[in-house]
Amino acid sequence: MAIDYEKEGRVAIFTINRPQAMNAMDMESMREFREAMADFRDDPELWVGIITGAGEKAFCGGADIKDTLPFMKEHRRDQWAFPPSIMRGLELWKPLIAAINGMALGGGLEIALACDLRIASENARLGTPEVNLGLIPGWGGTQRLPRMVPYCKAAEILLMGRLIDAQEAYRIGLVNKVVPQAEVLTTAKEWAQVICQAGPLAVRAAKEAMIRGCSMTLEEGLRLENSLVAYLMGTEDFAEGTTAFVEKRKPVYKAK
Known about the structure:
It contains ten helices and ten strands. The longest helix is centred in the first third of the chain and has 16 residues, at 27-42. It is globular, with a radius of gyration of 19 Å. It folds into two domains: 3-196, 2-enoyl-CoA Hydratase, Chain A, domain 1, CATH 3.90.226.10; 200-246, Lyase 2-enoyl-coa Hydratase, Chain  A, domain 2 (Orthogonal Bundle), CATH 1.10.12. It is of the alpha/beta class.
């Protein structure tokens, strides 16, 4: 299997397992990734996902040049030929954490950008070198990166194909935290457990409000927020959360 998909309690862990190819994504990997993500989305017992790479050198080296890029070229006029993913086509409101254990290049960085939280190892390097191949990022990089970091830094990374190290990524707000390589996955799991203590429906609504609100006017975003608040107030989780607060105990959420 090119994608190892494990379930640890409420947490799903996706490991891109092609270390011999810097964990680059070939078409088999992309199909397995889509299937695993769809299962995660639809499994009511899973609340948080973590994406990482096998080995100590690479999170993901991007699209496999010998396999994925030829497929993309052959089907470049058919946007539906490529498996839907978290980068494009697969709507997912459950939170995702990228445990960036090494190089995150091209499509690898774009996978990380499609996550909500990013933890990088000290040896990580990130970038989009596609312009050096006569191409641009095609999995959302040109759209997500300028929305996450200052425009001039996004332009530096995208137009120059320049790689940055983990500390620079942290400085510009591209990653949340930098830790030793051996602690990347452990830290991601710790963060996932923190999220799992919160109301899962509330977490998903907060993610939806942030992502959808970014493309709305302030007034439209406020209306979206209001509609999500109204929805949450009618859930069992809201009743449990407020009751547990009054009773001074930990809530037992059911995602209902």
